[in-house]
Specification:
Layout lengths: L3 H7 L10 H12 L2 H15 L11 H4 L9 H5 L2
Helix pairs in contact: 1-3
Length: 80
């Protein structure tokens, strides 16, 4: 979705507007011909992939060691 949304927004389209394969292919071809659309799609993918809560490009070693989803406790919720 992060790649498709900027492309559809630029051309003022919705998913419902994509009613035929030729229209899909033409829209994608036009999008990749437009540097602005390519950059916005790239930024959108970057934002979807990068975790802003950790330094660098990878998850923290603590997050990678989880075997179960960490549940919030009342203490965690009341500290804010």
């Amino acid at each position: 979705m992060s790649v498709v949304t900027p492309m559809l927004a630029y051309y003022e389209l919705t998913g419902a507007d994509m009613t035929s394969w030729p229209m899909v292919f033409d829209t994608v071809k036009n999008a990749f011909s437009n540097p602005y659309v390519v950059v916005t799609m790239g930024v959108s993918v970057f934002n979807a992939v990068i975790d802003p809560t950790t330094a660098g490009l990878c998850d923290s070693s603590q997050a990678m060691s989880y075997t179960e989803i960490k549940k919030e406790t009342d203490e965690t919720n009341s500290s804010s």
